[in-house]
Predict the 3D structure of the following.
Amino acid sequence: MKDDRNIEYLVGKKAKLDVFLEPFSFKIVSFLDDLSKALDNNSNNKNFPDLKALSFFCRKNNILSLKDKHQTKNSTRFGLGLLFHVTPSNIPTNFAYSLIFGLISGNSNIVKVPSKKFDEIGVICRSINYVLNKKKHIKVKNMITVIRYASNNDLLTKKFSAICDARLIWGGDKTITAIKKFDTKPKNIDIPFADRYSISLINSENFLKLSQHKVLNLIKNFYNDTYAVDQNACSSPHLILWKGRFNMKAKEKFWLHLNNLVRKKYDSPLISTVDNYSRLAAEVIKNKNIHSFKSFNKSLYVVTLKRLYPNLFIEKPKWGFFYECNIENLKNINYVVNRGLQTLTYFGFSKKFLQTFFETNNFKGIDRVVPFGQALNINLIWDGYDLTKILSREIEIR
Amino acid sequence: MHFLNDLIKQNAYSLDTSSKSKFFRKHLNFLTSFHYKKSNLYKSYLNGINYNLKQNNSLSEIPFLPVRLFKEFDFLSIKKKEIFKTLFSSGTTSNNLSKIYIDKTNALNQIKVLQKIFYNLIGNSRLPMLVIDKQNTNLNRNSFNASTAAINGFSIFANEIVYLLDQENNIDYKILNNFLKKNHKKKFLIFGFTSNIYLNLIKKINIKKIHMKDFSNAFLIHGGGWKKIEEKKMNRNQFNLHLNKKLGIKNVRNYYGLVEQIGSIFFECKCGYLVASNYSDIIIRDENLNICKEGETGLVQLLSLLPTSYPGHSILTEDIGEIVSDHKCKCYGYGTRFLIHGRLKNAELRGCSNI
């Protein structure tokens, strides 16, 4: 085909992608375990904490524990067939997770990686190729194609959309709209990862009880959830809710420590100065719900709200721009909950308490409730989708 | 504004550093209070950032409005019926344009100031002008995009205007040949956007089709940004050299200005520096919005005495620049000398929202 000239094959080559397996097949578990080792053996790993995390995810033990958690007992399931993944440009390892989820659920995969040539993508694809060259992985070899082509190459997107059984569309609303224009088979399933926003919930009394060491640790976790990705991931919190009797004191302490860490560690381009200041300027003009604000430094703005209100995030902030609000009754979270709300990270509440709370309140949004530090930990359940189930079919046998 | 009438009697570069800073301090503080009273949006902004509305704030304390806000808000310090012209920034999507509202006084002052500044460049007489663009056939006289506004602004210095490009953006050699035949012996103006000059006078033009290739009396003025030129890996010197080699144009001057601030137009001097006139000035700010020292690169803040119909007397642009020492040259007269290093780059974000 003439349009093939515009594809760069990073893994596989026009392979026959008609293989499908049962979810958590031992073939996949064994492949991923070898991949984990191959990633570790790559001496460059030390420079890439995200590759280390990926290798850790692929270990046999981890996949088997996921199997324990997610595999439906006493049912016969197989992958849907062929998945087409359109992966985002700014988290280098995201394409690998998308691929791994496809494999675990038993599918063959065409993975389009972003045009930006991250080092991580090169390392991962080299490792995959190395492992796939082993004889024992011959079947898996027919399940993986990783390609790169320009996003505006409609011919190719059209071609892959026409043959796949499901599309995993990362990259937010714009990408989703663009990809959905291309026809699919009638039974195709689209899994869109739309633009989302996220919030945090802190129990101020419990926060103030923490030892200095634990405070610093909590702040570090919050930093990793936000600044590590310029606060631009869907799961990075943008609004902090304070619950408790000593909110004032807790806020002061929290932002002070975060500010120290940000000053020490965070580096952002000059445009962030203009983005953050312009956002603040626009907010003070139009937002009637602002109580006050504090600009600690160019990369830490905190806008304190009088009350919660709907459509708080028409345009998500980034570069360390936060909103905060006191919340007396947790049920008032409802004011900001809509389908766009993805993750709630928490501190100072028990898992059990939150379980009961969310069970008894039918919120329209919030797909993840995780402790501080885990906002970005991608997993088999993501954005409210139980991926191994959605990406496989069950044969009903009575 | 009476002080403008006094100022306009002087040369456009007559104020030395200390008298200019006193003058600006007084009048910009006045303008800040003036707009605070006249524009509710501006008032909310100043109240919102807890600005202390004193009359003797220093120049660096004068509040600045981020230029992006002109896209989101309609800033007006006049009644709607007093709007004489609306200027739009150049942009690709119509809902994302800056809107600048000008009344008659502001429009007139803008012309007066431009005339004063232009005098230092080419003198007082009107000249024939060759515009490196196509004629705008949109006849709405009350609303202008950046390119029409610029061409109209400069056209007051012309006694004859011809457009080099036809409506399909092709060079009309007949027009060019007629223009040269008639005007090559005396001083004449060439005006266009930097990118259009590059595309047409450096790239496209076929000198074999020019009957009388005599541009020795041409004075070429261009502006609008170097981005497209830099993409071709060409700098200012090479740009000027190309124009000289290919057509023999010796006088080439860049200008810098933003639709968002009337009165701020800065022409390059012979040494290659942009120079602020009596009516405007520049401040460079660092990543923390603190003032940069001479020679340090940072964000460009522009000051102008002119805007009274909208609060645009102090704006924070998205351009990067650097102030160079006053002692570098004496071209034009007094005034801050600076360089513009282009627009802020839309940085690559980490995160999951892009493809």
